[in-house]
Design brief:
It is built from 7 helices and 15 strands. It has 331 residues and is α+β, with helices and mostly antiparallel strands. The strands form 5 sheets. A 5-stranded antiparallel sheet has the order 1-2-3-7-4. A 4-stranded antiparallel sheet has the order 8-9-13-10, covered by helices on one side. A hairpin with a 4-residue loop joins β1 and β2. It starts with a strand and ends with a helix.
Length: 331
């Protein structure tokens, strides 16, 4: 559904062109210092406006409506909302008869019997990652505050783009070309949690990889996740992939990505995320027109990212922090 977590429960709501979007967080420990200003840095990292991102600019001003009193969390459900102000819903009318290839237009209509809100892609929009980022800010505070992390002081969750459009460099030229052609690009983002103690996670269903991957795959447009050596491990020998253990009980290399048997081993948790190219593109595409009953040419109107992944590192950080906060509070 729209809720993730067992102890730290995060529920998102709203549609891209509705009145507002937001998040409710239950299980937030009481006493965390929290203000509107705490959200600013991560919200700005997700904000649009740079080359290759959507020209839709929103204020993205967080409003804390419950769960905080006199600058501290109360332990009650914490709710943060954002108003939608810069909307152009008419751009989406064409997709009722011609659902966009690669998008959720058709699957949403099938699942909800055409009762879904199609404006701005509704609840399927990348805009819904904004409240997720807000929840990530709180999750990072939980990790920072957790006394059970005292052995290894928490130094953050850090994500960055390592590949864009199949390139490890020269992204500006690739973006310019995609913009000229009315096309889009995908990317690979690497995320690292450099300091986390051993012992978190469970075997099988609630392994660190399973919980983190569940959260990461919830981000619109994610197509793959790999930890440590990832798919490369399938082409290695055991003597190459195995991580020798040092005198301090921690791995001397990190082919496992910081996890053995579903449980953190004391090395940094490291994984990479593959994002598909943005589905909404200006370049004409041949797809089915349900109104005419034949194949037709679709030219997508509206304001869309050429590469949504440009704004996604902070989203990856957020869902990772949410997943780890839940595991930490469960222990």
């Amino acid at each position: 559904m729209n809720t993730f977590g067992r102890k730290f429960r995060v529920s998102i709501f709203g549609e891209s062109h509705g009145e507002m979007i937001g998040v409710v967080m239950d299980g937030v420990p009481a006493g965390l210092e929290l203000s509107v200003q705490d959200f600013e840095t991560d919200i700005m990292r997700r904000k649009s406006g740079a080359k290759g991102t959507t020209p839709r600019i929103e204020g993205d001003v967080p409003m804390i409506v419950s769960g905080v009193f006199e600058g501290h969390t109360t332990g009650a459900p914490l709710t943060v909302v954002f108003r939608n102000e810069n909307t152009r819903s008419a751009d989406y009318g064409q997709f009722a008869s011609m659902p966009r290839p690669g998008h959720a237009d058709l699957t949403a209509a099938v699942k909800w019997d055409d009762c879904q809100d199609p404006r701005g892609s509704g609840h399927f929009s990348g805009r819904i990652t904004l409240p997720v980022v807000a929840a990530g800010v709180v999750a990072k505070k939980i990790l920072q505050d957790a006394t059970i992390l005292d052995e290894t002081p928490f130094t953050g969750v850090n994500a960055r783009i390592i590949e864009l459009g199949g390139l490890s460099e020269g992204w500006t030229e690739a973006l310019d070309q995609a913009i000229r052609e009315g096309d889009s690009l995908g990317a690979v983002i690497e995320c690292e949690v450099p300091s986390i103690d051993p012992g978190y996670g469970e075997p099988f269903w609630d392994s660190v990889e399973a919980v983190v991957a569940h959260a990461v795959f919830s981000i619109p447009g994610v197509r793959g996740v790999e930890f440590g050596d990832g798919f490369g491990a399938s082409r290695m020998k055991g003597s190459e992939h195995n991580d020798p253990i040092g005198e301090d009980g921690r791995p001397l290399r990190n082919g496992a990505g910081g996890v053995n048997g579903g449980i953190t081993n004391g090395a940094p948790v490291v994984f990479r995320v593959a994002f598909k190219p943005t589905s909404s593109i200006r370049k004409p595409q041949c797809t089915y027109n349900f109104e005419k009953g034949c194949m037709d040419v679709l030219e997508v109107k509206g304001r869309h990212d050429v590469c949504f992944a440009l704004r996604a590192p902070v989203v990856v950080e957020a869902v990772t922090a949410i997943a780890l906060a839940d595991l930490v509070l469960l222990r």
